[in-house]
């Protein structure tokens, strides 16, 4: 069965039981503007819940990997098979990390991305201001660089999916009735030691989060089903004060301070705030 083929900080595999029931049972077009590892998309694909899907991200390297998995998975498997025996070799890791991706073919770029993802520290994707991947070697006991059947199943799930390098606002602008959008942005850091938002050369700061809240509201006004994940902190509580917000428990696996890893509360913004009069009518109807 298809599932995430890369590791991703903040991946939603552990929260699928909370997220999936909050999305429609039947979706005309599913949009995921911060695709990351794609856990929610792959779960919906397994359940055949959408007619069409558009996955996007501003990270062109990430979208490039998805396109190769979709369009050229056998060549990707061949390249990864050649790299897999060197998965525990730091010299290979740093040599690949130092490569200029513009000099590589698309399938070579994808194999490099997956190899680094599976062997780097904590599976992080972090870049500097120049857009250069800068995560150190992970020193895993037995990293699994190649999972042939998983890649093939993911390729089948992605076969008719549109993959775009896009800003989230552009990706969501056409969402309307019958559509669903799941926004899983780089989270607002809850502490100085929890800030891992450098997935792209342009940091995702407060202004971007404010714009995302307005984009979600625009989706709701157009009749689309929009769902937003984020950290539970005063900033996000204030940002979504006019929306319906629920909390879920998640495990925090990445923090520079090991004592701060463990269960943490996250927010799920599930819709616009319902007027009090509407709430009273709804309650009366239920009682009747």
Topology overview:
Elements: H1 16-19, E1 27-32, H2 39-46, E2 50-57, H3 60-71, H4 73-83, H5 90-97, H6 106-119, H7 148-157, E3 162-165, H8 168-172, E4 180-183, H9 206-221, E5 225-231, H10 234-239, E6 243-252, E7 262-272, H11 276-287
Parallel strand pairs: 1-2, 1-4, 2-3, 4-5
Antiparallel strand pairs: 5-7, 6-7
Helix pairs in contact: 3-6, 4-6
Structure commentary:
There is one protein chain. The protein is α/β, with parallel strands linked by helices and 288 residues long. The protein is 37% helix and 17% strand. It has eleven helices and seven strands. The protein has a seven-stranded mixed beta sheet, sandwiched between helices. Helix 2 links the parallel strand 1 and strand 2. Helix 3 crosses helix 6 and helix 4 packs across helix 6. The radius of gyration is 20 Å and the shape is globular. The C terminus is likely disordered.
- Compressed to H and E, one letter per element, the order equals HEHEHHHHHEHEHEHEEH
Mean pLDDT: 89
Structural class, from helix and strand content? alpha/beta
Q: How helical, in percent, are the residues?
A: 25-40%
- Kindly report how far apart the N and C termini lie: 44 Å
Backbone CA Rg: 20 Å
Strand order of the largest sheet: 3-2-1-4-5-7-6
Provide a count of the helices. 11
Assess the beta-strand content as a share of residues. Answer: 15-25%
Shape: globular
Give the biggest beta sheet.
7 strands, mixed
Q: How would you concisely characterize the structure shown here?
A:
With 288 residues, this protein is α/β, with parallel strands linked by helices.
